């Protein structure tokens, strides 16, 4: 009887050890869904466009400084100049420690000369960027930016587009957005946090 | 003396009457705070903003805008919804009720000037003509400001 009991306990021990080993292995190989996803890395990322002088512009050039990116088009009479004027004003209020980047969603009409001149307008340094349709499509996708041409009945068109401003920190990581509908105080607080 | 008094009196009365008539359309509409941002040298379009106050006793309807300074000028409405900015023409004019105001401002209704014949320069003023449904037109003075200013 003693021996049978010993053997049974040994079996229990082995099974327990086996289960422990099995569970430990499970824990080590956590499935992808169990990992914490950093949503911030899903927006933004490196890009290559063309600057106001027609030269290739790598997002590497923005590294080390926080920046605010706005998508628009120069044939936009109201929303785009208004947003850039607002950003220039906020930049001054904040202390000038971030860059303002304007990326066109209308590369067919906005070449280097157009985005370069637009960049000069607002009393603050604005980096105006354009590119090939493929380059613009790629960077739009990285930021989840929507745009659509709308014919104006006169042979021209306006462009409906995402008007959100994207705040990128000095390490190139997306941090927050500015909404066209939010208060100046809310935007200023976010920019102060961006600059740190 | 007496002979010429009548024509003079008549002329004066008619003149004063015309100026003082309370229901004349020109005096019922007040245009104020007209402004626009300066443009870049090769920039061919711009938005102008202003406020129209209807001090009269009946509706007025702004139908169009005209100017010699641009090939085309038209009324547009910007809207931002769910983060997406759109712009559409205001096709059948803008009604202003008695005692009401139409405010043209950034992010909302604006006058779009297309095919500018020259840049808009900060510190200068330009003139636009507002055309109303009842056939009357009025000049609007637009002050040009530096783009970062407003």
Helix-strand topology string of chain A: HEEEHEHEHEEEEH
Low-confidence stretches of chain A: none
The average pLDDT of chain A is: 90
Largest sheet of chain A: 7 strands, mixed
Distance between the termini of chain A: 75 Å
- Which structural class best describes the helix and strand composition of chain B? alpha+beta
Envelope shape of chain A: elongated
Give me the number of helical elements of chain A. Answer: 5
Calculate Rg of chain B over CA atoms. Answer: 19 Å
Counted beta strands of chain A:
9
The N- and C-terminal alpha carbons of chain B lie at a distance of: 60 Å
What is the 3D form of chain B? globular
Report the C-alpha radius of gyration of chain A, rounded: 26 Å
Low-pLDDT segments of chain B: none
Brief synopsis:
Chain A is an alpha+beta fold. Chain A is built from five helices and nine strands. The chains are: A alpha+beta (196), B alpha+beta (150).
Descriptive notes:
The complex is a heterodimer of chains A (196) and B (150). In chain A, the strands form 2 sheets. Chain A has a 7-stranded mixed β-sheet, with helices on both faces. Chain A has helices spanning 2-28, 79-94, 112-120, 133-143, 184-195; strands at residues 48-51, 56-58, 67-72, 99-104, 126-130, 147-151, 157-162, 165-168, 174-178. In chain A, helix 2 crosses helix 5. Chain A is built from 5 helices and 9 strands; from the N terminus they run H-E-E-E-H-E-H-E-H-E-E-E-E-H. By secondary structure, chain A is α+β, with helices and mostly antiparallel strands. The mean pLDDT of chain A is 90. Chain A is elongated and about 100 Å long. The relative contact order of chain B is 0.25. Chain B has 150 residues and is an alpha+beta fold. Chain B starts with a helix and ends in a 5-residue tail after the last strand. In chain B, a hairpin with a 7-residue loop joins strand 1 (29-37) and strand 2. In chain B, strands 1, 2, 3, 4, 5, 6, 7, 8, 9 and 10 form a 10-stranded mixed β-sheet that branches. Chain B has helices at residues 2-20, 25-28, and strands spanning 29-37, 45-54, 60-66, 70-81, 84-89, 94-96, 101-103, 109-116, 125-132, 137-145. The interface between A and B is medium-sized, with 37 and 33 residues.
